Request: fold
Amino acid sequence: MIAAVSLAMTAVHAEDLGNSPPSPPGSGSNDRAAPKSEAAEAWDAVKDTTNPALLEAFVQRYRNTFFAVLATARIGELKAAAAKASPPDAPNAVRTYPVRPMPTDGVRERVVLYDEDPSNPTGRQYVGSVVWRAEPVKAAGKAREPAVRAEIEVPSRGLRMTMSFKRNLDPTLPASHVAELTFQLPAGFEGGGISNVPGILMKLNQQARGVPLAGVSVAVAGGLFMVGLSNAPADRERNQNLLLERSWIDIPIVYTNQRRAILAIDKGTSGDQVFKTVFMAWDQYPGAAQPAATAPGGNGDTR
Reply:
């Protein structure tokens, strides 16, 4: 999974997230996205092609951009798929990633899923909940250290999602932090599935328009998405400030049927404490001293 993000990550800015879903009703903002670069616009035009020759031409034209890395990876995927093509009558295997059962303990903060509805200009809203935890994780060859974990449920839509947010310890991956988003949907889910998560946005309150974190989102497979945050110094500082200072997180979603949605997640008091505790453990909290209390769901053990 890290390899997939490694191919896609570079020091990009938040504007490269592309078109994000509309904000919840009543939102407003003075934020304006800068125009995309020529390479970014060209990549948008060819990224879904199945023609290796077209991708090779793209690489020749934009060889010095990170989009050329994406195109090269895509060429490799197409060639591998052609070499290992299944027989015509073989069923297509879809890999899925399990989501843990929702915890029965812990403080539950508010979640709202905003679904686009062509028949209703204000869309549809579904209320859910999130439990925040500080969870020890182990990277290859590294000691265990805490990460932020959110377990989200929207019962009326049957939607479940977990988000694991950790700092990047892989020197080959040009990202400061990595967020793993794992969705679980019921059979017959309206929308068909989730085809894209353009990025992550932070906002001051539920009705505000979100401000994108600088980074790149990659669809891995079967409801699993990874967002690598830019490691460029200016982006890193800006992302960190947004993560720690803003109270709500927006996860824009594009369903398989191309309708859009926003999963708005309240950090609340418990989420704020988890982020503070974890960033302190990483020595990334401004003016940090070690936290006086253990975050919800954590036991202080990072071995």
Remarks:
- The longest strand covers residues 120-137.
- The helical segments are 2-8, 38-46, 52-61, 66-83, 233-245, 268-281.
